[in-house]
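Provenance

Sequences were taken from public entries as deposited. Structures were produced by running a predictor on each sequence independently, with no templates supplied. The record for Anoctamin from Amphilophus citrinellus is shown for reference.
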Amino acid sequence: MFNLYDIMEEDGYEFHPVDLPDEPCFCPQVEFNGKPDSLFFNDGVRRIDFVLVYEDEDKKEYEKRHASQRRKRRREYFEASLMKMGMELEATPSVSARPYEKLIFVKVHMPWDVLCTYAEVLHIKLPIQHNDISSRPSPWRFLSYITKQFYPDENLISKESEFFTAPFEKDRLEYFCVKDKDLFFTPSMRSRMAYYILSRAPYEVRGNIKKFGITKLLDGGVYKGAYPLHDCRFNVKSEEKDCPNERYLLFEEWAHPKSFYKIQPLDLIRCYYGEKIGIYFAWLGFYTRMLTLAAVVGLGCFLYGYYIQDTSTWSKEVCDPDIGGKIVMCPQCDGCKFWTLNSTCNTSKTLCMFDNFGTLVFAIFMAVWVTLFLEFWKRHQAELEYDWDTVEFLEQEEQPRPEYEAKCIYERKNPVTGMKEKVPYTSCGRCIRVSIGITTVLFWIMLILASVVAITVYRLAVFFTFSVELKTKNLTDFEPIREYVTPQMATSVTASLINFVLIMILNVLYERVAIWITDFELPRTKTDYENSLTLKMFLFQFVNYYSSCFYIAFAKGKAVGHPGKPVYLSGKYRNEECDPGGCLIELTTQLAIIMGGKAIWNNIQEVLIPWVKNLISRHCARATSQKVTPRWEQDYQLQANSKLGLFYEYLEMVIQFGFVTLFVASFPLAPVLALVNNLIEIRVDAWKITTQFRRIVPEKAQDIGAWQPILQGITILAVVTNAMIIAFTSDMIPRLVYYWSFSVYPYGDNVENTMKGYINSSLSVFNISELPSKDHTALPNIATCRYRDYRFPPGHPKQYEHNMYYWHVIAAKMAFIIVVEHVVYFTKFILSYVIPDVPYAVKEQIKREKYLTQVILHETNLKLVSKRLRPAENDTEN
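Predicted structure for Anoctamin:
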């Protein structure tokens, strides 16, 4: 006999435990039966749906008695509540020696009636009929003999049968395909229902205040762990006849390095870990496949630039001793030396690999690619929603968080149901909470911007110091190094490294702040919680990772004045100029360092740290115990899962997506690096969750949540940033203006001829005698020097003012941005309109499933009405 929640309360599915235990009742404690791979109680019949772990206080002499007894009372009350609610428990002491000898493992089983009740509460969809709509043959089926090599072994992982499904109802059990009650609810469904009950079972009642939920007990140390069981060891098949060995299959066909080329078994991932994990790996795999095309085009663009670096006119003029060798450039800082243009020969050639006409084509291609990526992902996501029964996963189906329910002390009228319901705050209180959250987020964003300013000051100070040192010291031995490492390059690389370290430190600090703010706001459902935290963390990460790139791309070197009248920051440091090769090469360096460093750091965190911890844990267990270890104890020795689940995985990939799209015009190799990283990331994440962590509690999810609009926002912004990078950061527009307007030759019309003289036209002249601080000892016979700008020469009535060429270039840049944005946005609109979000075949199947559900409900209602009418007819006859 058991008591469940009052399921059909009129206050909008507010669940409250009833018939709580007056006296503690204890779960039976048994000894381990010696079967290490068993997934059942000692009787071999009742399946283990969840495991709770605690430390026996009676064996602890060093701890305060009061705290131990309080935890023990809470645990006993909690377990008694579970048993009163229909759960069956069985406790088994640890078989290991120190440090595990004090642990008690409480195994939780859900009987059939409890499963049926909570399957109805959680609207779990289950099969009602085989899918009778024939699938259309693939147009690529003739390549199946080749493509099958890239799919998981069908002998190990067979294709799932397709069913029409409907939300489960106990009263209509005969309409569902129930062949075996033990297999009707999958282990992931059972674990999900068990966790739902554990999250709402009370552990303490004081007057009208009820405290409940396994989360609070874990935080308070009452329990050391709570997790569903893996079904076997990842590298050894279970010998139990009823074990599906899904973990072993996932490792062999998905997580093992030898399977890196295989397509992911998404249905098995979803079946084992739940829809939320499945949709993440589906999105990551789809993103990686789409990156393949972008990587091929980006690599082709880079190879084109590499091929023309020695033949392009502007790089040859820079390196030519008769052209670049005779052009004396003005000092770029106070106290710096004069330098000749050909000293930047290597930088100029490197720049040609990233700043060429192919880059313009690639930037436009990426704007179209990102639209196709999002549209095709929506279609793929719609197919997964139908296949995984999440099409109607609506907000009302998601239950409130236990933390939210515990704080519900106010009443309000629900505008939808018209009934009174309990809420944790008034309208004014909610406004105060949200305002505090917004203010805190803005403060931290300003802190990031302050760090960017600090990095800028560092750049100026180090560049000045480095340049003065090169001038005052005899560095003849370092001349070969100085040929490749200029003061600007050394400053840029060190500043990028320092910026990366600051990013990592601020990430750790802000993460805790963001979680505290979101907890304080008290969102209603877990989806609301994750969406709120996602928005906060992404805004912070966006500014944290991209602010330095935006500075280099759009601010650095844009307000430097001219040699006779430079611009000073704070009246002390002369404003920073771009590298002699341009700011684009610095932006490329910044992106390469941040993307590479971030990938290396994340892999260390995700792989090395849990692997070392598990290695130490296994070593301790082996050194202290010679007994057979049961399945639940093997899982306890693995790492616990993060409370935020997949949040960090999504965040890592979305930040990478930003680097691939926002600044791709400056770094065509970004998709290549992202592709290589993602190919590793998929297998690393698979290996990590399959071998190093406890089994994740399965969760329902319809899509990728708040990350979808964030990706759409990035794609819109990417069009603007890439157009502005080409216009204002690269030399593409000035070259095109010179090519079409200012360089018309009567003999020949090829680029080799018409681009001659471009370097000379892009440099202005300055009189050395007018320099505020000059060095005549370096070049005593030179009266003028050159600098990058379009200004009138000395002696002109408007000397050192911008000339007409400057305004032509500005007009061309603005026209380029306007035209490119309108063309790309129009193309994106057409593609979004032409490509439907839901495939036609999926729409047909959804309609068919709804029809069958309505037919079943109609027939059932008719039977119920008939049963009620028959007694009435019999009474009339009598």
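The first strand starts at residue 50 and ends at 55.
The mean pLDDT is 79.
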